[in-house]
Amino acid sequence: MSHAHWLAQLDTGGVWSIARGLARNVDTYKQLLANCDLPRRNDLDGRGNLSEEALAEFTRFFLETGLDQVEFMEDLMRPDALRTRILVWAEEETRMGKLPQRAGQLLEAMLYRGELPRGEIGSLLGTTDRTSRRVTSELLQRGVFESESSRAPLRLAFPAALASRWMPGLFPDKRSQT
After folding, report:
1. Which of 13, 18, 67, 146 is an S-S bond match for 157, by CB 3.0 to 4.6 Å?
2. Strands annotated E in the chain
3. pLDDT digit string, tens, across residues 85-136
4. What residues form DSSP beta bridges with 50?
5. Beta carbons of 117 and 150 less than 8 angstroms apart
């Protein structure tokens, strides 16, 4: 239940999971969980039939595991450098002719704002509507932006094809697994 709740609340798309941390400590997890069904040990161990101390110990373990996984993901993703990695990628792709000019400028605006109405893109880039549509279209096709409809605002997406570049270390390198 906690996994499902955090998955819904954190909206990570399944990248972050408490299950990873619990799997690393499966024996401790199972033992502490089983201990929650033990009868209370003495008069100081809660007021019900079951051990409140065992429940507190399991809860502490579970929350520490969750924090450990948050720190693990932060170390992998390095959010303080994410903006730089994305903009360097855009600059390199533009130099190689794989992205249109001003794509980096649009990406930078998106990184600051989080969501961008389509009607503001032309003025933001200082270009014609046709040019702004071309830049937007290319970023949508590459999976960099997403939108609920052709008129809805744009949001930054994190395409799997760019995960190793934008978030190095998040997924294991296929070559290192063989």
Report:
1. 146
2. 115-116, 145-146, 154-156
3. 999 999 999 999 999 999 999 999 998 888 899 989 988 898 888 989 999 9
4. 39
5. no
Residue 47's Cβ-count burial label (10 Å; 0-12, 13-18, 19+) is exposed
Q: Are 109 and 126 in contact (CB under 8 A)?
A: no
pTM, two decimal places: 0.63
Report the candidate in 2, 122, 23 with the shortest Cα–Cα distance to residue 72. 23
Helix or strand holding residue 116 (H, E): strand 115-116
Res. 178: pLDDT tops 60: no
Nearest of 176, 113, 102, 114 to residue 139 by alpha carbon? 102
CB contact set of 72 (below 8 Å; sequence gap of 6+)? 20, 21
Please give the single-letter amino acid code of residue 6. W
Alpha-carbon distances of 19 from 50, 57, 62, 94, rounded to whole Å: 26, 18, 10, 39
Cα 61 from Cα 122, distance rounded (Å):
52
CA atoms of 106 and 1, how far apart (whole Å): 40
pLDDT in tens, 31-76: 999 998 888 888 887 788 889 899 999 999 999 999 998 888 888 7
Give the pLDDT confidence of 162-176 residue by residue, as tens digits. 888 888 877 666 655
Cα–Cα–Cα angle for 3, 78, 170, rounded to 5 degrees:
55
List, in sequence order, every residue forming a beta bridge with 154; answer none if it has no partner.
116
Which tokens sit at 156? 């930054």
